[in-house]
Design goal:
- Helices cover 49% and strands 17% of the residues.
- By secondary structure, it is of the alpha/beta class.
- The chain folds into 2 domains: 3-148 and 259-299, 3-Layer(aba) Sandwich (Rossmann fold); 149-255, no CATH class.
- A 7-stranded mixed beta sheet has the order 3-2-1-4-5-7-6, with helices on both faces.
- β4, α5 and β5 (133-143) form a beta-alpha-beta unit.
- The longest helix has 25 residues, at 234-258.
- The two termini are 33 Å apart.
- The mean pLDDT is 94.
- The protein binds S-adenosylmethionine.
- S-adenosylmethionine (SAM) is lined by residues 2, 5, 15-16, 50-53, 55, 74-76, 97-99, 114-116, 119-120.
Length: 303
């Protein structure tokens, strides 16, 4: 099980675009799903791979042309609201790896994945999809692309996370100041020097990463941790913020490593052949001129 994803879904996260989503980019991606799902006029058993917060299942339930059934699998621990988890047309299976599914052979009509399957070992996951997808069953996967706007922005966020978490980074400066405030409250000059250091580090980060420091809530954290109402639990707040950043860093590293480029896409096409799955189209999708993702569409038509 992946704990950094489990931590993420235990919060109030609903999708994994994170802070960088815009209504327009979501619309572009969603329209790819709505168009694909509207092709199915009879009831389908639909698998959502790496369902996370169930974005695709919610979208399917809202826009379906007829009543489908949905199976959402994820190897993380999830957190669905009751109107989804108690819906009798929806089955959620947590702790389920796409590389070794417990689902029955030929049990699925349509397989979907949004920003999830690319995290897996393609050879093993495609072999599983081949096994569980019925003959002529269809699939659509929307995957991260190395040159996308999502990866560009997340790479910057990763940089600011690395800087913040360095041994002599700003989280350390905050911890040192909290300790000094508690243990040497009378050393006014020392405290002033530490405050000046903190301000200057924040300013430098703001200069190079003005959007990204907000993506990781850094100014909000500094303001909160030194506010009077939190005097007694500053250490706790700082430790929980640090842990959040560490988990975020793991997610972003995995995200950037998983994104496809020309080279990995060529290798991937071979993997589809090897798994005997027909890959019909690969399409780059854009919002205005910004690349968002790559869409892979195909079917289980090779016996
Ligand atoms: C970026 S999130 C996408 C979630 C959701 N599809 C969305 O679009 O909001 C990736 C999800 O894939 C899941 N995941 C990654 N590798 C997986 C694997 N091998 N098997 C099952 N789930 C996996 C993660 O736990 C995470 O919930």
């Amino acid at each position: 099980m992946s704990s950094h994803w489990s931590d993420y879904w235990q919060g109030n996260a609903y999708d994994s675009f994170g802070e960088i989503k815009t209504d327009q980019s979501i619309e572009v991606v969603n329209s790819k799903w709505i168009n694909f799902l509207s092709e199915f006029k009879t009831k389908q058993n639909i698998l959502d791979i790496g369902t996370g917060g169930g974005t695709l299942i919610r979208l399917g339930l809202k826009h379906q042309k007829c009543k489908h059934s949905y199976v959402g699998i994820d190897y993380a621990r999830l957190n669905f609201p009751e109107h989804i988890s108690l819906n009798k047309d929806v089955t959620i299976i947590e702790n389920e790896n796409i590389e070794s599914l417990t689902l029955e052979t030929n049990s699925i009509d349509v397989a979907l994945s949004q920003f999830a399957i690319e995290y897996s070992d393609w050879e093993r996951s495609l072999a599983e999809i081949k096994r569980i997808l019925r003959q002529n069953g269809r699939f659509q996967f929307i995957c991260h692309h190395k040159k996308s706007e999502i990866i560009r922005r997340n790479s910057l966020i990763l940089k600011v996370l690395e800087r913040t978490l360095e041994d002599n980074g700003i989280v350390r400066t905050v911890s040192d100041l909290i300790l000094a405030l508690r243990t040497t409250p009378n050393k006014i000059q020392l405290l002033d020097r530490m405050r000046i250091k903190l301000k200057s580090e924040l300013k430098q980060l703001h200069h190079s990463f003005s959007d990204e420091i907000n993506d990781i809530n850094l100014p909000q954290f500094v303001q909160m941790v030194f506010s009077h109402e939190h005097t007694s639990n500053r250490e706790k707040i700082t430790e929980s913020y640090r842990q959040e950043l560490v988990s975020y860093r793991l997610r972003l590293k995995a995200l950037i490593a998983a994104a496809l480029d020309q080279d990995s896409l060529s290798k991937l096409k071979e993997q589809f052949k090897h798994a005997k799955l027909e890959l019909n189209t690969t399409e780059l999708i854009y919002q205005d001129k910004l690349l968002l993702a790559i869409v892979l569409v195909g079917e289980n038509s090779i016996s």
